[in-house]
């Protein structure tokens, strides 16, 4: 449990009871203007002796918030402080928080605590809508940053929610002119929005907002409360002199993140943190000690003053407390609070007043249109809004019509089911009237989805659970020769027996029956059923043996004898009876495995290296120090061999070839480590010999104070020599998370030059995952386009070790190609296939899970076109 070092006494307020007469005395009341997320405002008059919780409850009642009120807070405008805004403390009286020499106070009702996955974790549609409004405002103001491509996707969902399906007659050219989503918005950006608006056809407002939240919650700055800070770093040449680096400390649901120039450079989860404290301007974060590391386990920040330091400390306390309250099971509230030795203004749900009526709200979605634009592209809000006054009295109920629809449309009628996936091929079903929440539609649609989603029960066999995703095989290099004599529309399935030795299917046919071998029956909830084996599938080979000339009994014996193989695994090469749903079925299995948290179990079943492959060359005395990590080595069988170096032909790099099923495409890669100072010359020699034209760099030079890669290229417009090669950097462009470089390599012996392009992904931490799905998928799609220039030349990919981030990239591009070819996908088998060519590809279970989630993101958002031919 985290220890928060700052203790203070707290007296219980006696001012919980108050009456109307107290408001007649001007010096005993505050005039508080509450600004809401729809740009309306309301004035409340409240006794100055009330506590913050009293004002919060009345505002929440006014909004008709129920259980979700725990996510919200009131932000106080305080221009006298460096942080300008601070949250209203629910445990303190108002007179301690609001100055007495101001006529009216302006507070802003906003979401304070952002959950990791609001689309799933928040049930109330109105709360989700308020979350969308706040994120939309932060994007427009520039507080929340993202790539323009991601912003266009988000804007497309907003337009779908507000305008409905794209209609060529109603939505003519420049129909988006009056909408504003990001600073400096231009016509090119609006054209992108129009493209995504067309793709969102068929989505109800609630569906579009759910999709909006799924994308927004993957942004690096989502839900982060930033605090300015600085750290002192010792200079490399002189330890006595220290440099001061300005950065931001971000507090959010998962813990504390560090940002520099709007780029996340590190994250410390609450589980990693043991103590948070401060003294004057200094803020301390103590981490769990790593027994295998001599690194200091504490981090020290310097803030502007004591108040800023205390405010950051309190933000950490409140966030940690909130997510402890919401993640732990319900216990006796008194006993639970006593476990915390610090004071917080987070009030448990049991102490927050809730509205008496728990009924669904009807509300009107506010348009993103703006009345006018300023020169710099920022929006001008309407000059005035309805301004009502309310007096807070004990037991008062302010159930007003805020955000309610003026439409008289009835919600009692059941609406047609709305398909959540965009469809451009058929006329979408009708939707509820604009501005009305599709309550019945959503309920019906969820019931429909439950019928479509396969569910594995906890009683299912463990081996079967582990096979639920991995049983779909893409083309594997080890079996490509065996399958070449069959029809190209075949699939290899691997099945493990259950504890009784059964595989879960029956067959019929054989040469003695004068019929092909057909799957006659597949037993439900077995490895066979989860491997997408279906009745009517034709079996072509068993364990790499062609069975077309075998009798029925011989085939039965072959299947039974498979139990004696390694892990009892049975390999079936089949021709599916129905190929149209293979891709969708495989994606549903991935989706199901994610929802049931089976991915980690599956990942742990993987072998790190291929049996029988050796590392003799990499471990030799001459090459030992040419490896950045002593346990990440290339196989002798798949390593890249330098051709023109008579002294030593070794470099820590591996060929990785990924064939795409049902096509003649083979994506070729060279996976390598980040070069060391002594391996830069072999690195460039390999690039020259292999005729590589594209380098993908997935690391920075330094991470967490450690060198991850030597700078093997010169600075802009400079040159550097490595043996017989001279490298010059002719161009360099920074674009969001990426750096694009054009490098010219000169072979001095041959007097020849070539142009090499390098793309560096700067914000992907070691042993971690990218900040969001959208930018990562866009990055992979960009690589696919660049590959088309010369499909036979390998792309060189490296991170630090050349297996973790490198493996995620190769997996993702392979899957996108398979989706395009309308082929079944199995991420686990792709990882196996990569590890048969370089050990340990994809280092962590979290990287594997991220890749699987990114696959679904790319498919669900229509980012890759499926070739149905």
Automatic annotation (TrEMBL):
Pfam families membership = FERM_C, FERM_M, FERM_N, PDZ, Y_phosphatase
Return the annotated region ranges for Disordered. Answer: 407-436
Limits of the PDZ domain: 492-562
Assigned protein family: Belongs to the protein-tyrosine phosphatase family. Non-receptor class subfamily.
Q: InterPro entries under this entry?
A: Band_41_domain, FERM/acyl-CoA-bd_prot_sf, FERM_2, FERM_central, FERM_CS, FERM_domain, FERM_N, FERM_PH-like_C
Q: Which reaction does it catalyse?
A: O-phospho-L-tyrosyl-[protein] + H2O = L-tyrosyl-[protein] + phosphate
Q: Which GO terms describe its molecular function?
A: protein tyrosine phosphatase activity
Instruction: Tell me which EC number(s) this protein carries.
Output: 3.1.3.48
Q: Which residues form the FERM domain?
A: 30-327
Keywords of the record, alphabetical order, are: Cytoplasm, Cytoskeleton, Hydrolase, Protein phosphatase
- The record places domain Tyrosine specific protein phosphatases at 774-849
The name this protein goes by in its record: protein-tyrosine-phosphatase
Organism encoding this protein: Rotaria socialis
Give the highest taxon in the source lineage: Eukaryota
* Keyword Cytoplasm attached: yes
Q: Does the keyword Cytoplasm apply?
A: yes
GO CC entries: cytoskeleton; membrane
Chief location bin: cytoplasm
Subcellular compartments: Cytoplasm, Cytoskeleton
Q: Which residues form the Tyrosine-protein phosphatase domain?
A: 599-858
């Amino acid at each position: 449990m985290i220890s928060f070092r700052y203790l203070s006494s707290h007296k219980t307020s006696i001012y919980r009871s108050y009456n109307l007469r107290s408001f007649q005395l001007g010096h005993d009341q505050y005039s508080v203007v509450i600004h809401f997320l729809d740009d309306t405002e309301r004035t409340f008059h409240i006794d100055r002796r009330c506590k913050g919780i009293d004002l919060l409850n009345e505002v929440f009642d006014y909004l008709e918030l129920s259980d979700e009120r725990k996510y919200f807070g009131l932000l106080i405008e305080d221009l006298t402080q460096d942080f300008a805004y601070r949250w209203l403390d629910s445990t303190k009286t108002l007179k301690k928080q609001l100055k007495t020499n101001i006529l009216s106070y302006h507070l802003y009702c906003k979401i304070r605590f952002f959950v990791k996955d609001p689309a799933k974790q928040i049930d109330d549609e109105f709360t989700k809508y308020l979350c969308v409004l706040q994120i939309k405002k932060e994007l427009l103001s520039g507080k929340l940053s993202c790539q323009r491509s991601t912003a266009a996707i988000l804007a497309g969902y907003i337009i779908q929610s507000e305008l409905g399906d794209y209609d060529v007659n109603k939505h003519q050219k420049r129909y988006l002119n009056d909408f504003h989503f990001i600073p400096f918005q231009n016509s090119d950006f609006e054209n992108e929005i129009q493209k995504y608006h067309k793709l969102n056809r068929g989505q109800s407002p609630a569906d579009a907002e759910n999709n909006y939240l799924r994308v927004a919650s993957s942004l690096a700055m989502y839900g982060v409360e930033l605090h300015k800070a600085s750290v002192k770093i010792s200079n490399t040449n002189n330890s006595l002199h220290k440099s001061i680096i300005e950065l931001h400390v971000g507090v959010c649901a998962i813990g504390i993140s560090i940002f520099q120039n709007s780029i996340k450079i590190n994250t410390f989860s609450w589980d990693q943190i043991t103590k948070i404290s401060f003294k004057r301007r200094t803020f301390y974060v103590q981490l769990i000690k790593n027994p295998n590391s001599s690194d200091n386990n504490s981090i020290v920040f310097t803030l502007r003053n004591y108040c800023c330091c205390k405010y950051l400390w309190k933000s950490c306390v409140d966030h940690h407390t909130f997510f402890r309250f919401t993640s732990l099971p319900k216990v006796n509230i008194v006993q639970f609070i006593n476990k915390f030795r610090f004071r917080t203004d987070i009030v448990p749900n049991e102490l927050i007043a809730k509205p008496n009526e728990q009924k669904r709200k009807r509300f009107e979605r506010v348009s993103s249109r703006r009345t006018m634009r300023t020169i710099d592209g920022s929006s001008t809000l309407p000059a005035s809004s309805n301004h009502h006054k309310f007096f807070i009295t004990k037991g008062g109920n302010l159930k007003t019509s805020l955000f309610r629809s003026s439409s008289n449309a009835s919600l009692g009628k059941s609406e047609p089911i709305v398909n959540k996936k965009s469809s451009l091929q058929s006329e979408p079903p009708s939707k509820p009237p604009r501005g009305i929440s599709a309550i019945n539609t959503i309920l019906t649609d969820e019931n429909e989805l439950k019928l479509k989603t396969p569910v594995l029960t906890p009683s299912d066999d463990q081996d079967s659970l582990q096979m639920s995703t991995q049983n779909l095989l893409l083309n594997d290099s080890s079996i490509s020769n065996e399958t070449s004599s069959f029809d190209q529309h075949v699939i290899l399935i691997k099945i493990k027996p259950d504890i009784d030795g059964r595989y879960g299917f029956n067959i019929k046919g054989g040469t003695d029956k004068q019929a092909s071998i057909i799957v006659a029956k597949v037993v439900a909830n077995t490895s066979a059923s989860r491997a997408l084996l279906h009745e009517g599938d034709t079996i072509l080979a068993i364990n790499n043996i062609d069975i077309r000339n075998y009798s029925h009994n011989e085939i039965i014996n072959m299947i039974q004898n498979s139990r004696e193989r390694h892990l009892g695994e049975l390999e079936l090469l089949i021709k599916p009876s129905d190929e149209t749903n293979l891709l969708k079925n495989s994606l549903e299995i991935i989706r199901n495995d994610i929802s049931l948290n089976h991915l980690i179990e599956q990942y742990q079943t993987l072998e790190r290296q291929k049996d029988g492959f050796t590392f003799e060359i990499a471990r030799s005395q001459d090459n030992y120090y040419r490896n950045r990590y002593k346990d990440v080595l290339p196989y002798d069988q798949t390593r890249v061999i330098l051709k023109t170096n008579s002294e030593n032909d070794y470099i820590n790099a591996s060929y990785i070839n990924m064939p795409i099923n049902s096509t003649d495409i083979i994506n070729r890669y060279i996976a390598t480590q980040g070069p060391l100072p002594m391996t830069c010359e072999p690195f460039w020699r390999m690039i020259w010999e292999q005729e590589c034209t594209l380098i993908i760099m997935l690391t920075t030079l330094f991470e967490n104070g450690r060198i991850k890669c030597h700078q093997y290229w010169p600075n802009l417009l400079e040159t550097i020599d490595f043996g017989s090669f001279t490298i010059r950097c002719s161009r360099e462009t920074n674009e969001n998370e990426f750096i694009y470089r054009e490098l010219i390599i000169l072979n001095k012996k041959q007097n020849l030059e070539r142009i090499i392009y390098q793309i560096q992904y700067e914000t992907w931490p070691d042993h971690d995952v990218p900040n969001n799905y959208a930018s990562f998928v866009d990055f992979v799609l960009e690589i696919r386009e660049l590959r088309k220039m010369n499909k036979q030349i390998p792309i060189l990919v490296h991170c630090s070790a050349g297996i973790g981030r490198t493996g995620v990239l190769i997996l993702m591009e392979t899957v996108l190609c398979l989706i395009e070819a309308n082929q079944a996908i199995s991420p686990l088998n792709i990882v196996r296939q990569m590890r048969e060519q370089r050990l340990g590809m994809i280092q962590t279970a979290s990287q594997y899970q991220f890749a699987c989630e990114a696959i679904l993101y790319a498919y669900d958002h229509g980012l890759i076109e499926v070739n149905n031919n």
